[in-house]
Amino acid sequence: MPDSGQHTDVGPQGPAAPAATSTAATGATAGAPAAPGAAAPAVPAGSDAASAPVAEGTSLRLPPSLPLDEWQDLGRKIFGAADSSSWWLGDWLVYGRSAYPDRYRRAVEETLLDYQTLRNYAWVARRYAPHRRRAGLSFQHHAELASLPENEQEYWMDRAERLNWSKSFLRNRVRAARQGEEPAAVEQRVDIHLNLPQERRDRWSQAALDAEQDLQTWAMSMLDDAAAHILKQGEAA
Fold this sequence. Notes:
This protein is mainly alpha-helical. The protein has 9 helices and 6 strands, in the order ββββββααααααααα. It has a 4-stranded antiparallel sheet with strand order 2-1-5-6, covered by helices on one side. The chain has a two-stranded antiparallel ribbon with strand order 3-4. A hairpin with a 2-residue loop joins β1 and β2. α4 packs parallel to α6 and α8 packs across α9. The longest helix has 32 residues, at 68-99. The protein starts with 7 loop residues before the first strand and ends with a helix.
């Protein structure tokens, strides 16, 4: 999206609404977009705001003393807002196409938003009425299932939510079912939990990242390869 230049305090309770009062010292209105390249207003020393994260158009400024739990909570809130924005933009375009069929396309172009991306968001939004959207699943989970009939969407969303599947794992399971594996067989899969030293987990996570996979998908592929290799050796013996 275009950088509005707006500065927003983001504390542990989430983004705060921009203030509506004027600042006499600067003549500017608090919460109003700043000029491009303008520096963030100084925060008085000793004030509560001095230790609060500040979100800007192209950056997030965090205080050096931010506790770990607050940092984690802030990340969850940012992800939630980013994921929700996909639904919001999709619903926004669906409304515009209905309310302004002859003018919405030009209006979208004037916002500098990517029209193809918005069309994708709108397509997913149309495939799920608001009451069917699962808060426990990301927008991308829903997008993976958008082309399926509604009853199949519900089937896979139930399992993805209950078993905490990643988007990639969900895609693999749906693909496997389309290639002949019955959904019932997928449902009978067993979760395996590993107690790993942090150093090993970090090494595996980096390997998964280099392979452009989430850790779960990468680990499964490595185990599958290892199992195939050992079984092949056993057959040759």
